[in-house]
Amino acid sequence: MTTTTNIAAQYRSDVCIVGNGAIAKTAALGFAQSGYSVTLLVPPSRPALDGGHAPSSSAAEKPWDVRVYALNHTAHDLLASLKVWGALDLARVQAVDAMDINGDGQQGGKLGFDAFGAHVGTLAWIVEDSNLNGALDAALKFAANVQMVSGCAVDLTSSDLGAAVLLEDGTRIACELVIGADGRESWVRGQCDIGVDYRMYHQRAIVTNFACDKPHHGVAYQWFTCADGIIALLPLPGNRVSLVWSAPETLADTLMDESLGELAIRLAEYADEKLGTLRPLQPEAVKAVPLALVRPHSLVAPRVALVGDAAHAVHPLAGHGMNLGFGDIVDLLDVLRNREDRRGIADERVLARYARKRKEDVLLMQWATDGLERLFGANLEPVRVVRNFGLNLLDKLPSVKRRLMAHAMGK
User: Fold this and answer.
1) Residues 155 and 190 sit within 8 Å (Cβ to Cβ)
2) Are 323 and 71 in contact (CB under 8 A)?
3) Is residue 245 part of a domain?
């Protein structure tokens, strides 16, 4: 991979990918390994801002990242094909063998999934953001047809002759196709005047890590608490768990003001029986991430395709926001690989096929996550009874559960 600095210049490649997260890097590797020349445009580096207690650099063991992903089989297979999965620190990757989902109230419903019932070896893998990005960065170093440009984009143009991204220092990146992988507030999407349906959940995901007294046995736990939001404890290697608490904003403010010891005491109501006492991992770290539903009116524009959170942002209750992004990459590469010889990679009909191919998967995940958030956010007794009954009923329908799990796993 060639790294360049911000000097007035012109670059030319088949594809320009805008973004600096795991989805952007994976897309760059995927296109490069498919034979395309790639320019990866990343923002100028700046000091990292932490949303809470900062990890200490003097820790004997590398601190556990508070941001983790539950990667499904689609993500695993894509990363394996790109030689990235094997570059992960696998000692810090935890397989999820089962899920234990609990409704609200004293008679809350229960729903369980396990790998055996789904006829697979594992349901998902919990991977730290730093582990994933480290492996992607290592792989990009050996990608001969990827050049990285650091700078701030100010204009995007497209015509029959191609597309171009202009940077504030005068640098121009010419290409056939621009891929927006630049997150929920996508600059690329804004440049294309793509309308967006935006719903704030008035919640923040509180993320941090704990040690637990009892072994988790690879089980991911989730509680729908109604008034206090949705709590998930995901297994990490060893007797450790990662918390994702989708909390209403007022409660989120309180949780961020408290110590992690006080947060562990709050969680005892849910976790004590299954995981025993929780203790904050050292060095302590916690972050709060605002939650919103983002539905762009289109995934494509002339010579532009959106992937990842730029194309769709969903509630994290199902843990599949990142997996949708990996699915975008798989389907976009598949559409380009199977296009007619006479059509270029930015052909309008080719990009329309990508949008159609992603429609069902994205809409289903948006409908499921948004619908569940609304359902379990309603604090009415009749609704509480119905939703708990629904969980219990679904738990007794193995064939339906298998279909749901197959979709969630990307199988």
Assistant:
1) no
2) yes
3) no
Tokens of 340: 């007619």
In which element (H, E) is residue 354 found? helix 348-377
236 within domain boundaries: no
Is residue 215 within 8 A of residue 56, CB to CB? The reply is: no
Residue 255 lies in a domain: no
Phi, psi of 78 (to 5 degrees): -65, -50
Higher pLDDT, 190 or 379: 190
Reply yes or no: is the peptide bond before residue 47 cis, omega within 30 of 0: no
Start-to-end Cα distance in the chain: 33
Q: Which parts of 215-294 fold into alpha helices (H)?
A: 249-257, 260-275
The predicted pLDDT at position 384 comes to 55
Query: Alpha-carbon distance 345 to 303, whole Å?
Result: 8
Position 5 confidence tier, pLDDT thresholds 50, 70, 90: very low
pLDDT band, residue 48 (cuts 50/70/90): very low
Position of tokens 């650099």? 57
Alpha carbon 258 to its chain centroid, in Å, reads 27
Cβ atoms of 135 and 84 closer than 8 Å: yes
Domain that holds residue 184: 2-49+132-197+292-372
Does residue 236 contact residue 64 with C-beta atoms inside 8 Å? yes
Q: Cβ–Cβ contacts within 10 Å for residue 28, how many? A: 30
Assigned domain for 257 exists: no
Chain centroid to Cα 108, Å, comes to: 29
Q: In what order do the strands lie in the sheet with 68-71?
A: 68-71, 124-128, 94-96
Q: What is Dmax (Cα atoms) for the chain? A: 65
Token pair 């976009």 is at which residue? 332
How far, in Å, CA of 303 to CA of 396, rounded?
48
Question: Long-range contact list for 104-108, CB < 8 A, 24+ apart?
Answer: 104/223, 104/224, 104/225, 104/226, 104/376, 104/384, 104/387, 104/388, 105/226, 105/384, 105/388, 107/388, 108/224, 108/388, 108/391
Is a pLDDT exceeding 60 seen at residue 217? yes
User: Looking at residue 372, what is its pLDDT?
Assistant: 67
Q: Lay out the sheet containing 172-175: strands in order across.
A: 10-12, 172-175, 162-167, 153-159
With 0.85 as the threshold, say if the pTM is over it.
yes
Q: How far apart (Å, rounded) are the C-alpha atoms in residues 192 and 71?
A: 30
Query: Structurally, how many domains does the chain consist of?
Result: 1
